Amino acid sequence: MDLEVRHLRVICAIAEAGSLTRAAASLCMTQPGLSAQLRRIEALLGGPIFDRGQAGAVPTVLGELVLTRARAILPGIDDLLADTARAARCGTAPGRVRLGSVGAPLLADLIVATRELVPGSEVTTRCQYSPSPLLDDLAAGRLEAAVLGDNPGHELPPREGVVLRPVVTEPVFALLPSTHPLADHEEANLTDLIEEDWAMPHPDSDRTREYWASVFSLMGRQPCTPYEAEGRQLIDIIRAGLAVSLCQATFIEVPGVTVRPLAGDPLWYRHVLGWRRDGPVAAHGEEIVRRVAQGYRATCAAIPAYARWRERHPESPRLPE
């Protein structure tokens, strides 16, 4: 027996259901039939994929490996099947516009603009923490457009066939526990925060950590960084009062967390839109930039700390009209 796509679906269904009985029901199979199929799959792969007991079906070490690979493979297969089915129905290649984004407040406006300017297209999205793999995907034709970002002195490299269009450069703000003494101030001084424990995202190919380190070096020291986290985990660490960090100026405050500008604006972040020169977005690139910038203005106005900063700095940041 050769390994088939349906076998991967069976393994994922069992892991998701947590038991063979529930998985069998979701797959419209009998429990004995599913057990027999799982035994054949395990024999093919060389060992048990699940430990089966009173706690249900728990993946083994081998099972975790198989599940990781299966979950990475199946979405691509599903996309392929959907695209070929659509192409067969229409008699033409599917009009999909694939968008990517880093963590930034521009994606929703990019989606809306793309739908309006490229009517009839199917818009899909996926996100990455770092812009580097998204830029690679643009260059390779795996994306049509993306929201990217970089820092001064660490700009994104030009790539053949890709247009990179800056939207706005904004200051980087401090991310503090709401109980922090500086949370009651209008702005925070980086020299005060340098003495504290920090939480920072994992060093990545976008070189953000490298940029931050270069600014800290001008102060003569680097912060203590016992916590490496991003997303929800980083916010939880800040909320618990364990550390401070940095964030985009458009970060939306949540209970227990406060955003404050840094005195003197020592750090900056640049939002960038990228698209393929030969893609469906190219003819509308400048209009999309204008619409995304318009959406960014609305976002700025809804962020109290950033709105106050912009009132004090009316000439910055400059946005496309």
Terminal CA distance reads 62 Å
Low-confidence stretches: 89-94
Q: Briefly note the CATH topology name of the largest domain.
A: D-Maltodextrin-Binding Protein, domain 2
- What is the number of independent domains? 2
- Can you give the mean pLDDT? 89
Structural class: alpha/beta
User: Please, how many helices?
Assistant: 11
Strand content: 15-25%
How many strand segments?
A: 11
Q: Which CATH-level-2 architecture of the largest domain? A: 3-Layer(aba) Sandwich
Shape: globular
Q: Write the element-wise H/E pattern from the N-terminal end onward.
A: HHHEEHEHEHEEHEHEHEEEHH
Oligomer: single chain
Task: Give the helix proportion (percent range).
Answer: 40-55%
CATH class of the largest domain: Alpha Beta
Rg (CA only): 24 Å
Major pleated sheet: 7 strands, mixed
Protein model, in words:
With 321 residues, the protein is an alpha/beta fold. It has two domains: 5-90, Winged helix-like DNA-binding domain superfamily/Winged helix DNA-binding domain (Arc Repressor Mutant, subunit A); 95-321, D-Maltodextrin-Binding Protein, domain 2. 42% of the residues lie in helices and 21% in strands. The chain has helices at 5-17, 20-26, 31-45, 61-90, 107-117, 131-140, 190-193, 208-217, 232-239, 285-301, 304-312; strands at residues 50-53, 56-59, 96-101, 122-127, 145-150, 162-177, 197-200, 224-228, 245-248, 257-261, 268-276. Strands 3, 4, 5, 6, 9, 10 and 11 form a seven-stranded mixed sheet that branches. A two-stranded antiparallel sheet has the order 1-2. It has a two-stranded parallel sheet with strand order 7-8. Strand 7, helix 8 and strand 8 (224-228) form a beta-alpha-beta unit. Helix 1 packs across helix 2 (20-26). The chain is globular, with a radius of gyration of 24 Å. Mean pLDDT is 89; it is low at 89-94.
